[in-house]
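Aim 2 progress update. The chain analyzed this quarter is reproduced below.
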Amino acid sequence: MEEDLEGQYLRSFFYFHSVPNESTEFLLCAKINKSGGTMFDQNVIIEWANSHNVESTALSYCLKCVNNYLAESPEDIKLYFGEYYYPEKLMLKLEKAYLMINWNEPEYSHIIALVPIVYDSKEIGRYELFYRMSGEIFDDVLVIDGQEQLVY
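Predicted structure tokens:
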């Protein structure tokens, strides 16, 4: 008699060395589908993101980065925001959190949180926050109108 395994989880542990001499255990799961094959369970990434407060952290870091950019480059306000900058017209919302696997060097794999920067209903840029598999933030990037901004 054949056992029905549909919907059951297969679990695999992957170890990423995102920091020298530090191994991070990362659990990836797959569900068995109707045909008996497996499919990745995206809830694993969602749970990881929730446990590391990715949404609130990405939004607060993005807002800080935008504010620093405006303070460092006031000449760009008119260019991208009109005559005056109105903070209430800025809309930030986490759009994606995704796993980027570096195929040749898996120890450099990471998770990216993507926040589109929308001002006055127009997308003017994006912010990306990079996480090591351990949950440590290691980099970010602000792009306004296709130009990467160096903001400190």
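The chain has three helices and nine strands. The helical segments are 43-51, 54-72, 76-81. These observations will guide the mutagenesis experiments scheduled for the next reporting period.
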